[in-house]
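User: Homocysteine S-methyltransferase. Structure?
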Amino acid sequence: MKTLTILDGGMGRELKEIGAPFSQPLWSAQALIEAPDFVSQAHQNFVDSGAEIIITNSYACVPFHLGEELFAQRGFELAALSGELAKAVADQAPQAVKVAGSIPPPFGSYRPDLFKVEEAASIIQTLYDAQEPNIDLWLVETLSSVQEFESIHGVLKQSTKPCYYAFSLEDTKGDSASIRSGESVKEAVKLVCQSNATGIMFNCSVPEVMDQAIIDTKQVMDELGQDLEIGVYANNFAPISSEHEANDMLQEMRELDGQGYLTYAKRWHDLGANIIGGCCGIGPKHIKALADWKLEVIEEK
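Assistant: Predicted structure:
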């Protein structure tokens, strides 16, 4: 079995929790603009909790959050800063910590119907060029359709660094897993296996739907003779509907504590996931529970 690696948690919620400037539509980019020390502190909190991969705070460095004018003026600068801040924290960490460069949805989370192929490439290229000097791997986050994957992969295929593609799932359980477009996870996995990917992940969805996605992924990889890494980082949200407003990031929270989240994580690991962290609403206490559990796993071996 591949080595278990602990990913960090949700940057946006952690910024709010520690008192960073935070409002819509800027969301997590507001701290980059007004108070970058808070971004460093959020990264540090996850590293102190045991995270071995931290994700750059570039998720909101897109026109959707910044607006067209501010993105044109400062999008590259802010995305570059997100990489610099993460690298500085990682370099000072007592444990080995890698930096994942985040490539977010250019036109809003959970809404594949809002994706614009013609406009996406230049936005993604800007984020790529800005972060590339300071990151160890790429993490494309919250992919909601095959079309989004293909468009963003068109940019990332130039990279020589490990590339991971994370899909957001429909928040309903069934005999097979689907991404938010309604397309099957199996279809998405087949395409990822034909790309330059190092791994496939599932994020920004409720914990309950992750099991089936891992099962479907393993089945496709076995059929294709592939052995990509599998990662999971779920939300601490209630289920998200297909009518979700793309700029409404303040979802209803649930009371899932560190041990409650760990219960799901153990099952994901048993099913074949080797990279586990958290997305929206998953904070340092949840990551610490994962990191403590990893120590137990190592000791058992």
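The longest strand covers residues 137-143. Strands lie at 5-6, 53-55, 98-103, 137-143, 163-168, 199-203, 229-234, 275-278.
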